[in-house]
Amino acid sequence: MILLLAPMEGLLDATLRDVLTRTGGIDRCVSEFIRVTNTVLPERAFLRVVPELLNGSRTRAGVPVRPQLLGSDPACLADNAARLAGLRPHGIDLNFGCPAKTVNQSRGGAVLLDEPELVGRIVAAVRRAVPAQLPVSAKMRLGYNDDRRAEECAIAIAEAGANELVVHARTKAHGYRPPAYWDRIAQVRESLPAHLRIPMIANGDIWTVEDALRCQTVTGCDALMLGRGMVTNPGLALSIKGQGLLPWSEMPGLLLAFWQQVALRVDRRHRAGRLKQWLNYLRRHYPQAQRAFDDLRLTNDADAVQSWFDRTVPAFQNTQAGEAARMAPFTEPLPA
């Protein structure tokens, strides 16, 4: 089973991608979206979201990362894709699934699913603009307010030359409320004519190994994309592949690695919040994370968080300087 790590705006960024791909089981990542409006972005705009482009478009663990573009102007997206291709990414992904109100109001993300013809023109323009050997993929939801045009959108994406398609099994109106409608992914997959049968990847509500196996059975997809389930349980991909579990004893090292990168990338006043954000997810799977979350709940000072690490993770204290130096090549602040 091929497993992808999902893009999650404001959470699953380069820092968390790096840490989660160290645990094993993930075959590829998709970055959070890079918004394209009416201009060709400078290279630093791509590098800010996908610093892995400075490392062969791979995380430090060697897992490929595919940058994702979001917008509604086919020509402008094509021009940006061409510039991005010059940075030698591991493919280019297109966002037709973001449910955020601000994004949709700017005619981006899931709102485009009401315009299958435009979706197809976007994919076709990007496909023409980049080298033939560079994969172009897309991620969509089942629709905006309803799923009546899901099959139409999927066919438009495939006809336009996409190499693969991720389908999140909800509409924008569903948000992230359970359940995920995996049976609709199967129907969308079956709707593609034989000559357009591109690989389809199922996404949505995969929290456990049992969920993954059931999703694969229901959808008929050989590949799955993991999002919140992987953030909550960093060993999920490993377990799905039958390669073991990730015990809590390994989490202090991952938390420390995460914190060290947050210190390099995030403004000082927001650092504690980033750590608490991940701990809030982890406590759903690890009871021990609840104590850590409680210890830091009222803390917003970065020095206080570092002192907490010094007290609670003494075995890792001596690795901090070397670890930070090793990260420097593609985690140093980029020019504004």
Write a brief structural summary.
The protein has 336 residues and is of the alpha/beta class. It is built from 15 helices and eight strands.
Question: What do these coordinates show?
Answer:
- With 336 residues, the chain is of the alpha/beta class.
- The protein contains 15 helices and eight strands.
- Helix content is 45%, strand content 14%.
- Strands 1-2-3-4-5-6-7-8 form an eight-stranded parallel beta barrel, surrounded by six helices.
- It is globular and about 60 Å long.
- Mean pLDDT is 92; it is low at 315-336.
Stretches where pLDDT is under 50 for at least 5 consecutive residues are: 315-336
Structural class: alpha/beta
**Average pLDDT figure:** 92
Percent in helix: 40-55%
How large is the radius of gyration?
A: 20 Å
Topology:
Elements: E1 2-5, H1 14-21, E2 28-35, H2 43-49, E3 65-70, H3 74-85, E4 92-96, H4 101-105, H5 116-129, E5 136-143, H6 150-159, E6 164-171, H7 182-191, E7 200-203, H8 209-219, E8 223-226, H9 228-232, H10 236-240, H11 251-265, H12 268-282, H13 287-296, H14 302-312, H15 320-331
Parallel strand pairs: 1-2, 1-8, 2-3, 3-4, 4-5, 5-6, 6-7, 7-8
Helix pairs in contact: 1-11, 3-5, 5-6, 6-7, 11-12, 11-15, 12-13
Question: Could you list some keywords that capture this structure?
Answer:
336 residues; alpha/beta; eight-stranded parallel β-barrel; 15 helices; 45% helix
